[in-house]
Design brief:
The protein is built from 17 helices and two strands. It is an all-alpha fold and 446 residues long.
């Protein structure tokens, strides 16, 4: 009679888990875009890593040299400076200088001082890009229906280092060395996405966690299975985000790589700019693994029961239990291995979920093991303390206030002996006291 009622209930819970998993995938992608595009520190860090990549440096150097030769008559500049008898060598010299200029550009981009200047320039450019996404800016502007990044400063530096004359700045046309980021048909979409992602990154994360929590709350009587399903859902969400990163990278590289020469640079740009997406996806998988392990710890397997048995005396004591959890939480906050632990809202939500699960484990352990191993007699604790201080301690038996089941008491004392809390003599004395308290073993029937 009850089976028809249980199956729809389980189906509804699993539907919530599936919805939460889909939301988690969207949350991972939203977090990546929000933190990569709208966060100045992450933008600057990734831009610095771009310049440190050899393939990207080579591509940027090649672009600057191409812009130099496309906008300036290098052969004419050399011809004007050469003596009359060598003016005919201006053409070949300009061709040879092209290779020299490429090497000089790469060397300049490798210098720590240039890379530090690049980092600061990217930080300023990001601030102006945010202005563009909000409606306009100066250096990164929306003139002529495009969003562009002006690289004429680097081009002028290349001109000076190549020895062409340092008069390039006044000869560059307005569109020279302008790297187009967005075109007019993409600008409005980018502005809408930027404005939408500000609240969605945190909102989708909170919604996914709340859906998982609601599924476990509704799964009365089988919450451990719901917790395991939620952990698997988080693992699936993280793996799906990693697969999306890989598939998206293949499409982006194929779409932007017009020649085989620039393909390594584009692949490097995608890899670096999506490294944060990889970190968020891996953190999501880690949260899922924690959920699956928590479900296992609350399960009926022999290892899980033995683990709860060994933790029982500490979980029963609120000072030990919550003090230990507080230490773990503080260590996690100080370490901050994931982005979620670095944001106040998501960090508080994760701590709340951890606290609820920890309390559920405490109550389950208290029901299963009402008498903890730490309930030793005062005499025995004194004996262990004396032995730890190097003093000779008398062997003191455990009084009859210990658990009623002799087998259970023997198992507990054996566990203490294996962990080194009791010496061999103390273990023998405790075992003898337990057997004496249990009384004579009844004779088997004839």
């Amino acid at each position: 009679m009850s089976t028809p009622d249980v199956r729809p209930h389980r189906g509804g819970v699993y539907a919530l888990v599936v919805a939460a998993t889909v939301t988690a995938v969207l949350a991972v992608l939203a977090i990546w875009v929000q933190r990569q595009v709208l966060d100045g520190d992450n933008w600057t860090a990734s831009s610095s890593r771009l310049l440190e990549d050899p393939a990207v440096r080579t591509a940027v150097a090649g672009y600057l040299v191409d812009q130099l030769y496309a906008n300036v008559d290098v052969a004419g500049e050399l011809r004007a400076r050469l003596p009359a008898q060598t003016k005919g060598l201006a053409g070949p010299a300009a061709g040879a200088l092209r290779n020299v200029a490429g090497n000089l550009a790469i060397q300049a981009l490798e210098r720590p001082r240039v890379q530090a200047a690049w980092e600061q320039a990217n930080r300023r450019a990001h601030a102006r890009l945010i202005q563009v996404l909000d409606g306009g800016g100066s250096v990164v502007g929306t003139a002529n229906g495009t969003v562009s990044l002006d690289l004429r400063g680097l081009l002028t530096e290349l001109d000076n280092r190549a020895g062409i004359g340092g008069r390039l700045a006044g000869r560059l046309p307005p569109g020279a060395a302008n790297l187009v980021v967005l075109r007019s048909n993409q600008l409005k979409t980018a502005q809408n996405v930027a404005s939408a992602l500000r609240p969605l990154a945190i909102g989708l994360t909170a919604l996914a966690l709340l859906l998982y929590a609601l599924a476990m709350w509704l799964a009365r009587g089988w919450r451990r299975q719901a917790l395991r399903a939620s952990g698997v859902g988080l693992i699936v969400a993280g793996v799906a985000a990693l697969l999306a990163r890989r598939a998206g990278g293949d499409q982006v590289v194929d779409a932007l790589a017009t020649t085989a020469a620039v393909r390594p640079a584009i692949a490097s740009v995608w890899r670096i700019e999506t490294s944060l997406l990889q970190n968020v996806a891996q953190a999501t998988i880690a949260y899922g693994v924690v959920g699956v392990l928590a479900a296992w710890l609350a399960g009926p397997t022999s290892w899980a029961v033995a683990t709860r048995r060994s933790l029982a005396p500490y979980l029963r004591d609120p000072a030990w239990a919550w003090g230990g959890l507080a230490v773990v939480v503080l260590l996690l906050l100080a370490w901050a291995p994931t982005q979620a632990l670095r944001q106040p809202v998501t960090a508080l939500l994760l701590i709340a979920i951890l606290a609820v699960g920890f309390e559920a484990l405490r109550r389950q352990t208290a029901r299963e093991f009402p008498e903890g191993e730490r309930r030793l007699s005062a005499q025995l604790r004194m004996a262990v303390s004396r032995r730890g201080n190097g003093a000779t301690a008398p062997v003191v038996p455990v009084p009859a206030a210990a658990p009623a089941d002799p087998v259970d008491r023997l198992e507990r004392v054996a566990a203490l002996h294996e962990r080194g809390v009791l010496s061999d003599e103390e273990f023998v004395a405790e075992k003898r006291a337990i057997l004496d308290a249990a009384g004579p073993v009844p004779a088997a029937p004839a």
